[in-house]
Amino acid sequence: MAKHNRKRRHNCPICAAPRHEPALPLTIPIGIPTYWSPEQALAFFELIDEMRAVIVALYGMHLQDEARSQYQQPPDTPMVIPDEQLPF
User: Fold this and answer.
1) Dist. CA 58–CA 79, nearest whole Å
2) Are 54 and 60 spatial neighbours (Cβ–Cβ below 8 Å)?
3) Which of 9, 24, 36, 81 could bond to 40 as cystine, CB 3.0-4.6 Å?
4) How far apart are CA 26 and CA 14, in angstroms?
C-alpha cells in the first residue's frame, strides 16, 4: 500500500505540534499572586510579552481584522453629538 505524503496544515512548527497531552487539561487557569517580588513579576511580564509576540506572529492579520470589526464604527452610521455637548 502506498504511503500518502500529507501536506502540513500549518507552516509553523508550534502549530504542527500535537495539540494536547491527554493527561493535561486543555487550559490552565492562572492566579496572579499579589506577593511576587519585582523580579518575579518582571519574569512573568516577559513571559506574557513573548506569548503576545508568538500570537501576533501566528494570528496577526486575523487579530487586526477582528479588532477592526469589533471597534470600528460602520461607515454609514452617522456620529451623533447631543446638542448639550456641542461647543457652540
Assistant:
1) 35
2) no
3) 36
4) 16
Q: Which helix (H) or strand (E) holds 60?
A: helix 38-71
CA 69 – CA 46 distance, rounded (Å): 29
Instruction: State the number of CA atoms in the 13 A half-sphere of 7 facing the CB.
Output: 1
Give the integer Cα–Cα distance in Å for 32 and 54: 21
**Alpha carbon distances (Å) from 30 to 33, 39, 76, 87:** 9, 19, 42, 47
Rounded to the nearest 5 degrees, what angle is found at the Cα of 72, between the Cα atoms of 74 and 55? 140
| The length of the chain, given as a count of residues | 88
d(CA 4, CA 77): 53
Contacts of 55 (CB under 8 A, 6+ apart): 63
22: amino acid identity, one letter = P
Per-residue pLDDT reduced to its tens digit, 55-71: 999 888 898 888 888 88
